[in-house]
Design brief:
This protein is an alpha+beta fold. Helices cover 64% and strands 8% of the residues. The strands form 2 sheets. It has a 5-stranded mixed sheet. The protein is elongated. Keywords: Coiled coil.
């Protein structure tokens, strides 16, 4: 709820309104301070309301116009920003305010009421002076609908009255807490919206605090002195302005003279320009005809370009094929260059090699002569060596025959020694079986014919690796190791150490020649059955 009032007409407010009785025509009423605010019926008659109320009601009257911001002190929105920017900023600012503690009490202590309209059609509003704030800096051309549309969006404002002439609004918040919170952020309000806020509660003082005309006289005299001082300052400023004006006139005359000279030169230049324009028109006509000729020439050239484009396409294809052929030729040329370099290197190498070979040939000829003489000497020595070789061959045959005889003798001696060792060890006697005697007789033949294969035979007869290593360490040659292994095998197996088992082990190892030799050398009962 709210309304519009004229700033110059709203120039009085009452102090000491009686609590009872018929109230006068008022525009605004403040319940907690018993102070109404009245507005004159006509603009331009600001003292009308004060005179009528002071004489007719015996009330103390004070001018409200002096309490509102002056026109020159108000930075209205029309001078600051266009449209409704201040109202938008104010709406955003009000939405960002924190809620006070008494925000839930609005509507309980501040209810609105409307009295019947009088003959002057004045809207009567009931407002709380403690919750009222004067905000200045609004645009002076806003209508009632636009202002109240923006104010209604703010949930914390109960009602407002706008003074369009001064760009000022009297806003009543729902609670005094909202007003105090709004005033606490007035610096941020000015920074964000350009609006200024003032508290109105202390201006509506009771009757005992009203300043009389006697107390106002010293203040007015002081204000008069200040006004006179301001007037003197204004006169001094006016004199300085007049001096500056004289200086500017002198400058203006000088500039005017200069401009006249410039104008004369411009007229002359204009005449030259007109002459040049005529020449340009003639040139333009000539150029127009030339343009027509050029157009025809362009059409002819376009046709030639079209045919040339086809020719260029064919040439491009030929160029592409030529480039490919050139690349192939270049590749072949590189190969030929490489081959040529290699051939030159080969020629240089062959020339050096030929010189080297010639030198080597000379050396070889010299060596050949030396070899020939040496060959003659070696041939003579070879004849002597051949004679010596024939003699050595005869001697070798003699040694071979003697060796065969010694082998047979050694074999006989070994058999005799084996028979003697059997008697000493006690593993055979005259009372032994025929099978044991046959196995012992085979041991001597096996150890003569099985030399390096004795380890394989030991594996075949189930000897372990440590046992084989032990036998290897305590004997010095293959024969003694083989004989020791066979004796150990017979001792372990006892009656199971037969000739058949020994023959099978030899055949498993592929020693068939040893088996055949045993059969031919010892044809006993056991061997004949195999």
């Amino acid at each position: 709820m709210g309304g519009f009032m004229s700033g110059p007409a709203l120039d009085a407010h009452l102090v000491g309104l009686p609590e009872r009785g018929e109230p006068p025509r008022v525009s605004l009423g403040f319940r907690n301070s018993r102070i109404p605010v009245v507005s004159a019926l006509k603009r331009g008659v600001p003292s009308c309301a004060a005179d009528v109320l002071a004489k007719g009601t015996q009330q103390q009257v004070r001018g409200l116009r002096s309490l509102l911001p002056k026109d020159e002190d108000v930075l209205t929105l029309s001078k600051r920003t266009p449209d409704c920017r201040a109202l938008d900023d104010l709406e955003t600012f009000l939405q960002s305010l924190p809620r006070p503690r008494d925000h839930l009490k609005h509507g309980v202590q501040s209810g609105t009421y409307r009295v019947p309209k009088g003959i002057n059609d004045l809207a009567d509003l009931d407002m709380d002076a403690d919750a009222c704030v004067v905000v200045s800096g609004f645009p002076g051309d806003e209508d009632n609908f636009t202002f109240h549309f923006y104010i209604s969006e703010a949930k914390c404002i109960r009602q407002a009255v706008v003074f369009p002439a001064t760009g000022t609004a009297l806003m009543e918040f729902f609670t005094p807490g909202w007003a105090a919170n709004f005033l606490a952020h007035q610096n941020r309000l000015f920074e964000e919206t350009g609006l200024r806020a003032n508290y109105m509660g202390h201006l509506f003082s009771p009757s005992e605090d009203v300043i009389t005309s006697e107390t106002q006289l010293p203040q007015l005299e002081q204000q008069l002195l200040s006004a006179k001082q301001n007037l003197r300052n204004k006169e001094q400023q006016l004199q300085s302005v007049m001096k500056e004006n004289e200086r500017l006139k002198t400058v203006h005359l000088r500039e005017t003279k200069h401009l006249k000279n410039e104008l004369t030169r411009e007229k002359q230049a204009k005449g030259c320009a007109l002459d040049q324009c005529q020449r340009l028109e003639q040139d333009n006509m000539h150029l127009t005809s030339q343009i027509e000729d050029d157009k025809r020439e362009i059409e002819r050239l376009k046709k030639r370009i079209a045919s040339a484009s086809n020719e260029i396409s064919r040439s491009r294809e030929m160029l592409t094929s030529n480039e490919q052929q050139l690349q192939r030729v270049t590749t072949e040329n590189e190969g030929l260059k490489t081959a040529l370099r290699r051939e030159e290197e080969v020629k240089k190498g062959s020339f050096a090699l030929r010189r080297t070979l010639e030198e080597e040939n000379v050396n070889l000829n010299n060596q050949a002569e030396a070899y020939k003489s040496e060959n003659k000497r070696l041939k003579t020595q070879a004849e002597a060596d051949k004679t010596e070789n024939d003699r050595l061959k005869g001697q070798a045959e003699t040694y071979k025959t003697e060796n065969e005889r010694l082998k047979e003798q050694i074999a006989a001696t070994s058999n005799s020694l084996y028979e003697m060792s059997r008697d000493l060890r006690g593993f055979a006697n005259r009372d032994g079986t025929e099978e044991d005697t046959d196995v012992g007789r085979c041991f001597h033949f096996i150890k003569e014919n099985v030399t390096a294969e004795w380890k394989d035979l030991a594996h075949q007869l189930a000897f372990s690796r440590p046992d084989i290593d032990t036998i290897d360490e305590r004997n010095k040659d293959y024969k003694s190791r083989c004989l020791d292994m066979l004796g150990e095998w017979q001792k372990r197996k006892g009656a199971a150490a037969t000739v058949d088992v020994l023959m099978e082990a030899l055949e498993e190892l592929g020693l068939t020649s040893v088996v055949d030799g045993l059969k031919s050398k010892y044809p006993g009962p056991q061997l004949s059955t195999l």
